[in-house]
Amino acid sequence: MTTGYIGEIFSGIQGEGLWVGERQLFVRLVGCNLRCAYCDTAWAREQTLHCRIEHTAGERDFEDHPNPLEAARAAALALRLNAPPGLHGSASFTGGEPLLQPDLVRQMGQQIRANGLQVYLETNGTLASALGVALDAVDVIAMDVKLPSATGFQCWDEHQAFLDTARPFIGRGALLFAKAVFVESTTDQEIERLCRLLSAVSPQIPLVLQPASHVAQGPAPPSPERALGLQAAAKQLLAMVRVIPQMHKLMGQM
Predict the structure, then answer these.
(1) Full DSSP string of 34-103
(2) What is the pLDDT of residue 42?
(3) Would you state the pLDDT for residue 117?
(4) 69-70 and 3-4 beta bridge pairing
(5) Is 171 exposed, middle or buried (0-12, 13-18, 19+ CB in 10 A)?
(6) Which CB contacts under 8 angstroms, 24+ apart, belong to 42-47?
(7) What proportions of the chain, in percent to the nearest 5, are helix, strand and coil?
(8) pLDDT confidence of residue 123
(9) Nearest Cα to Cα of residue 87 among 140, 129, 143, 24
């Protein structure tokens, strides 16, 4: 019986990436292997004794449940929010870093998929072996590439290994897209290195450049001119490059 540590489960509007605006079930797992300077869910880095789970979709009427939760129970509590049926087309596993608990993602994902929803994995793209464990229960991978200028550290080798593991997933027509938070100090050279990493796997991998939101003690958000310049650099190497800010923050949506 697989159990795991969950931070929260709720119904919301996807505010980042290619699926921005979609209604999703969010399953936030706790624990993270990174410490990004711009992180806005730092509370989800550590295990907690309890998690909060919404009772009615969109009502924010949270109930406390003890951690760890059994995978089948957690999936059932998430699926309870898909009311009326068809409100959600997918469930997003987010964090923290969900691939620190790959067996939980796999078992919950299988149950969620069996109930007609797609499984959308939001990951920092550094845990290749864990991706291999969960991959057959995932329909969409949102890979958050970590730029040194935004995070303060480098993950290029880890990202390469992750993409190598994901190659069969991409090859069978499943969707993997990359997202990169960028700041005012992000250089054209960083973006070009990112684009070469992706294009070596497939130049058709979509890239979302996400301007960093303001976070206390975090790096300076980029100017509109910097966003335009970096998008222009990326378009030299990839077919689809979009600039999308955190829309849920603009809406005041969790």
Answers:
(1) ---TT-S-GGGGS--SEEEEESSTTT--EEEEESSEEHHHHHHHHHTT--STTS-SEEEEESS-GGGSHH
(2) 87
(3) 98
(4) antiparallel
(5) exposed
(6) 43/7, 44/7, 44/95, 44/96, 45/96, 47/5
(7) 35, 25, 40
(8) 98
(9) 24
Whole-number pLDDT of residue 214: 83
For strands 23-29 and 118-123, give the pairing: unpaired
pLDDT value, residue 182: 97
Q: 96 - beta bridge partners?
A: none
Phi, psi of 179 (to 5 degrees): -130, 135
State the DSSP string of 193-211: HHHHHHHTT-TT--EEEEE
Q: What is the identity of the amino acid at 200? A: A
pLDDT at 102: 98
Tokens of 214: 């303001």
Give the count of beta carbons closer than 10 Å to the beta carbon of residue 75.
25
pLDDT under 50 in the chain at which residues? none
- The answer to whether 198 touches 163, Cβ cutoff 8 Å, is yes
| pTM across the whole model | 0.95
Residue type, 53: I
The span from the CA of 139 to the CA of 170, in Å, is 10
Element (H, E) at 238: none
The amino acid at 84? P
**Paired sense of beta strands 50-54 and 62-66, if any:** antiparallel
Q: Which CATH number do you get for residue 73?
A: 3.20.20.70
Whole-number pLDDT of residue 218 = 77
Domains: count for the chain: 1
For residues 125 and 143, the answer to whether their CB atoms sit within 8 Å is yes
How far apart are alpha carbons 233 and 241 in whole angstroms? 10
Q: CB of 29 within 8 A of CB of 4?
A: yes
Domain that includes residue 11, residue range? 3-251
